[in-house]
Write a structure and sequence with these properties.
heterodimer, A: mainly beta, seven-stranded antiparallel β-sheet, two-stranded antiparallel sheet, about 50% strand, globular, B: mainly alpha
């Protein structure tokens, strides 16, 4: 059974198993780093939206409208890019369908103010909303 | 011959369950697929596995197809029902992933199933007909169209005897496709296809008129687009002289409207109209557009989509009362998409209003006329020009579609209006009759129509 996007919490662990639909991919050419190309996309499920990072051939393999299953993914801060959900080295993204998810674009779990839990610094808790919607992919007019 | 994998591999996609089951069955039973075959009757589980393995082996096309089919003939005990259901599954779920040689094999197997009058044959042939894309003049699609129309001609005798209704499905499909094909030039292989489509359709009308007429009133709508072809002009004249009143009486079954809608398109339309809230539909609309309607030749598909939505997608009361995207809004969007293309736009409006012309409240469903009624109603506040041009089209249509039967059609439209008021689809027809946004002469025409054509009862 997979987690809903509204319930995922940042952590330095490959512990995210979830399913979402890709809403939009960034249009500019993907960034190329020493480890290969990557790009950002907006994804969502019935409960929330999130920014995902696609790596290497994932960038071309997935399109807006694709329903993706993520196994052992990681949801954490990426240098210069903010909070991102991705497969990471130990995770896997696979297309399982198209179109048939009735999603919401708010809240966006990357546009939440997450603070370390004072009682356990490795855990994060929500502490307010930075933006109701993605600031990278605003909702369509 | 080397074994060729029948399905295109996709790296980042979960393997389809059916594909997996076929591949695994082949992997485990491959040695048993060569003679000498075991004389033991397989147990039920092995029977299913052997069917799967044989299908996969034939799709692989490595030279033993006739052996495999003989093996199937020897072990079948269910009238080929399971094997045919697997073929249907491949066509519905996996057709796009088949490599070209596997598609050839698939059609060969279909002919084998026709020869043995397999159980479920109609489903298989209808699924294949649905795979012929609209407005797609690429090699693969033209090839499929050619293969299927040839198949229906070659296997005419068998099909007439064992599955005559499927010939009517083929007739509906090819009449519709021909209307598009006649408007395209510069695709050499299409000329052959058109020739065969005309041959098949004419054969149906000339030799099996009674069977052809089972399609019902939409047959007239389809034939109208073909009267410029001399063979059809004669058929049209014959029909008009003798049969058309009876044809109008017979409502076309919803299963015909499904013929021009691919399975993925049906899934997406039903999802849009059953699950997506009005106001949240923009992204789904973009994806639908990109997948099915990219390119001016594809606009013709809107005719079939609108007909399908009116007649074959009837949301429950629960959905109607909810915030889910209503049919009238989706149709409004489709009308907007084709407004630059007068040929398509006219036919889309005809598809939208066709059932109004023949409406009889004793037998017809309000659900077929509700989308047009609500589109006209809800356009009034912000887009009164849409209400105007739809109402104008409808009244003009009733007046001119079939001049000899003008009275009948005026009565049909009047009945439809009265029924939408009676059933509460529209609170009162005054919303049209007294609305200041609608032109006076149009309101007069509508009032006149309603008063001249009273209830039958």
């Amino acid at each position: 059974m997979h987690a809903f996007l509204k319930d995922i919490v940042p952590a330095a662990q490959n512990n995210i198993n979830t399913r979402f639909i890709i809403l939009d991919k960034v249009r500019s050419p993907p960034a190329t780093t020493t480890s290969g190309k990557s790009c950002i996309a907006l994804a969502a499920d019935e409960t929330a939206s999130v920014h995902i990072q696609l790596w290497g051939d994932e960038c071309d393999a997935f399109e807006a409208g694709d329903i993706v299953k993520l196994t052992n993914g990681i949801f954490s801060y990426v240098r210069n890019s903010g909070l991102l959900l991705r497969a990471g080295k130990r995770g896997k993204m696979e297309k399982v369908g198209e179109f048939t998810v009735a999603f919401v674009e708010t809240p966006n779990v990357c546009e939440i103010q997450w603070n370390p839990d004072p009682e356990n610094p490795k855990r994060y808790i929500q502490n307010g909303v930075v933006s109701a919607y993605s600031r990278i992919f605003p909702p369509l007019p | 011959m080397e074994k060729e994998k029948p399905f295109v591999a996709s790296l980042h996609e979960v393997e389809n369950q059916l594909e997996l089951s076929l591949r695994q069955a082949f992997a485990s039973l491959e040695p048993k697929l060569q003679p000498p075959f075991s004389l033991d009757i397989p147990d039920p589980q092995e029977f299913l596995e052997l069917n799967r393995a044989i299908l996969y082996a034939v799709l692989c096309n490595y030279g033993y197809s006739t052996t495999h089919i003989k093996h199937l003939h020897a072990l079948v005990t269910d009238g080929y029902a399971f094997f045919t259901s697997l073929l249907v599954g491949v066509v519905v779920e996996l057709y796009g992933k088949l490599v070209d040689s596997a598609k050839v094999q698939l059609l060969w197997l279909t002919k084998e199933m026709i020869d043995v009058s397999s159980v479920g044959l109609e489903d298989l042939l209808v699924s294949l007909l649905r795979r012929i894309g609209c407005g797609d003049y690429g090699e693969q699609n033209v090839w499929l169209c050619y293969e299927l129309v040839s198949l229906f001609l070659d296997k005419w005798g068998c099909l007439l005897e064992d599955a005559p209704l499927v010939l009517t499905s083929a007739l509906y499909s090819f009449l519709r496709l021909l209307a598009d094909h006649c408007r395209v030039s510069g695709v050499p292989k299409l000329e052959n296809v058109k020739r065969l489509e005309i041959k098949f359709c004419v054969k149906m009308f000339r030799e099996q008129m009674h069977l052809s007429l089972k399609i019902g009133r939409d047959l007239v709508r389809l034939l109208q687009d073909l009267v410029h072809i001399s063979e059809f002009k004669d058929i049209w004249n014959d029909l008009v002289c003798s049969e058309v009143s009876q044809i109008y009486q017979l409502k076309t079954s919803g299963r015909y409207f499904l013929l021009r809608i691919a399975p993925e398109m049906e899934t997406q339309l039903r999802f849009l109209l059953g699950n997506v809230k009005l106001g949240s539909q923009k992204r789904h609309q973009i994806w639908f557009l990109k997948k099915f309607l990219l390119g001016p030749e594809k606009e013709t598909l809107l005719i079939d989509i609108v007909r399908f939505i009116c007649c074959a997608v009837h949301p429950t009361n629960e959905i109607i009362r909810s915030e889910i995207m209503p049919r009238w809004a989706v149709i409004g969007w489709f009308l907007e998409l084709c407004k630059q293309n007068h040929h398509v736009e006219g036919r889309v409006k005809l598809a939208l209003f066709y059932d109004w012309l023949f409406f009889d409240e004793r037998v017809d469903s309000i659900m077929n006329v509700e989308p047009a009624a609500l589109l006209m109603l809800w356009s009034i506040p912000q887009y009164p020009h849409i209400t105007h041009f739809l109402l104008e089209f409808l009244l003009h249509l009733a007046d001119t579609y079939d001049i000899a039967r003008r009275d009948m059609m005026m009565r049909g439209v009047a009945s439809a209006f009265r029924e939408i008021e009676r059933k509460g689809v529209v609170q009162s027809l005054d919303m049209f009759l007294s609305n200041p946004e609608i032109a006076t002469d149009l309101k007069k025409k509508l009032a006149n129509l309603l008063s001249c054509h009273q209830d039958i009862n």
